Amino acid sequence: MKTLRARLGRAFVGVALLAGATTAAAPVADAATPPLQAIVPVPVSAQAVTGADHALTANTKIYTQAGSAQAKAVGEYLAGIFRTSTGFPLPIADAPSGTPADGISLLLSGADTRVGDQGYQLNSTSASVILRATTAQGLFGGVQTLRQLLPGKIESPTVQQGPWTIPGANILDYPRFGYRGAMLDVARHFHPVATVKRYIDQLAQYKINNLHLHLADDQGWRIQIDSWPRLTTYGGSTQVGGGAGGYYTKAQYTEIVNYAASRFITVIPEIDMPGHTNAALASYAELNCNNTAPPLRTDTAVGYSSLCISKDITYTFVNDVIREVAALTPGPYFHLGGDEAQATSDADYRTFMNRVLPMVATAGKQVVGWHEIGKATLPATATPQFWGTTTSSTEVSNAVARGSKVILSPANKAYLDMKYNSSTPIGLSWAGYIEVQDAYNWNPGAYLSGVPESAVRGVESPLWTETVVTPANIDYLAFPRLPAHAELGWSPWSTHDWNTFRVRLGAQAPRWQAQGLDYYKSSQVPWETGSGNPGTCTLPAWDRASVYTGGATVSHNGHKWTAQWWTQGEEPGTTGQWGVWRDNGTC
Question: Name one GO biological process term (predicted).
């Protein structure tokens, strides 16, 4: 038995290390990237100022524009992040007249006119850091860049050791597109308020300014409607796979809207219609043409459901839903869905949309819809959202010709629920695999024929949740692709370069690790680990032909491996052998 056990031990060494070569395939950066070369999205202009590094200390104060409650709120937001990780008090005070001579200042005066409503300028010297913008939203965007000028551990939920050094810099920055969005589907799998808030914080740090919530679909209805209460109590009672489902009360939805607003993110509610409506049809028989409610569905099929186009009760229902949801939503948009209405004829589809579009206007909102809504006669204020896998769309180009602007979400580029590759444990693949480079390498301003950049409102990253159950699932599919899309929406096309982006993206890893964000470690990206020299292992490299007598730890493919005693319950020094290897992470 001893001989057999020794052979098993030797065999396990080879198997474990070979397995490590597969699981540890993501490359590791050779050295930490300088902060000014690591910002995502990349700024319009970022110039280093040598010898002007600024030290954040226990004496640092944060000054905000005197008399501006919004600027003060941005200051409190910044202080809340920095206080947690530094332990410094960082008091907030009104900025003095003139140019502050110390601390961090958030000012609504003196900014370069090119920053517009969302941009900012940041000037850091050894004496002070000054952020200027024309709006509080611009200051908030500048704060996201300021966070990235400090080490990733600034994001830690516990106090860390400094030093906390902000490099000397002059940054001028403003967005390419005014609209930069992300969609979260809470219908296929319900995600509670805390999960949505967590996602909002993740979006904010990459200057995403719109959150599109997909609130109703065949598998569940997620928003309380007082005039049709069974939509949630019955229609919201399940989800894909047959779980318990759930829904937001009006108070909870308002909590999400207000939290998003505090991060300068606009919530766009979507009630998909006339298709994707089985949860509603199951809740109220009268919405069906045959007056018979179908059973609830927990599968992932699409295209089989439709509201009854010919019934007046349908339009009473739709008007009530739009009216109640719009009243809770201060933003300018209401999303009608309108996709995959395969159970509705084109003629009925146009009839339905022609009756419903004015309801949205009456509720004080502008229509957004998946690009199929272009089959109807849209007002110029309507926004079709392209989700196809081609580079042309008659519906979209026709809408653009009538004056509409477009949101781009091509499924084979922007859908966060697509798998990275065939080995990805969650996600779908009907639109193809989307690795990080695929997500980054397309130009929204020249993507659709007949749609010039001037007709593009912006970019949105949809995350459908057929396979997404937990916050960790969201992390894994959204990161690192969401920051890639954020850069497409924010940064000038002239800065677009995969080779520099992948380095900047890899430099985000210590930040995400500090935040507990469970990202996908793509082998296309050189990931930093947060150590002083993250790519160097001082341990000996594993060699299949070598015998190791000077220690139990070796390096392999950027990871360190430690041998453990193979005893099956026996004590070292009796029977057994060194031979069970454990991955101890990166060197």
Answer: glycosaminoglycan metabolic process
